[in-house]
Amino acid sequence: MLFWFLLLFAVLQGLLEWLPVSSEGQSVTLLVSFLHVGSQEAISLSLWLHLGTLIAVVLKYYKELFFFIDFRDRSPEVVQWRWFILLTTFGTAITGIPCYLLLSYLGESSVFGEYITLIVGIALLVTAFVLYFSRKVEKEGVPIAELSKKRMLVVGLLQGFTIIPGISRSGTTVGGLLFLGVDKEEALKGSFIMSIPAVLGGFTLNLTWSLITHEPVLLFKWWEISLAILVTAIVGFLTIELLLKVAKKYSFAFVCLVLGLIIILFFLLGILL
Description:
- The chain has helices spanning 2-16, 23-34, 39-60, 62-69, 76-107, 110-136, 149-161, 169-179, 184-213, 222-249, 253-272.
- By secondary structure, it is mostly helical.
- It has one domain.
- The chain is globular and about 60 Å long.
- It starts with a helix and ends with a helix.
């Protein structure tokens, strides 16, 4: 029965990754609240399923990625994109690693597990705030290649905080790029390209932490999680174009606000009842 829930979460991850509603936050809330999975295990599963959407991103942007890794091309724009990937990855590590280690440490406490849904709810309210104000500053902006290196680093620092369940990675990074004056199309492309090393880093960090602490990586067998990653990749690749159009056309600030309030209310009712 648990395996079928895993496949359901794989489908959800493939769909929600392209919308700024924190796919990790939704998965963690459902796993902890309804399947009574530990908070650390829920976060780990979310990180592993992100490998599936990473595959979808690579398939979508493979032409751009080829130019970035072809070091014979030294045109100014391509060089700036390489700096963007490098500095956003470095910035993500600066904030993301401490956040992950803190979550892993707190995840060993049963008390933290009881409060994880509250954290997700509050984080979704933060995401709603970011999405609302990023729409206010949206305008015809500059390409990412014209960003200063300092601003590239700032975007990476923002991405690191999105390892916290409930803070949308795409919403935060796209919002940050819009605040910095980047064109929306460029912001979306930049957000997903910078997610590639971030997802690989999160996966590696999770695996390393499990080996150091001798904790089981996941609650599932390897073939089960591999199949789930494949399902996420297929669903993600098939829906990325459509859902990115939806994300560009509509603001999800209200959706995150409502979801955040519902989760907080659910948490409070759990305490009172």
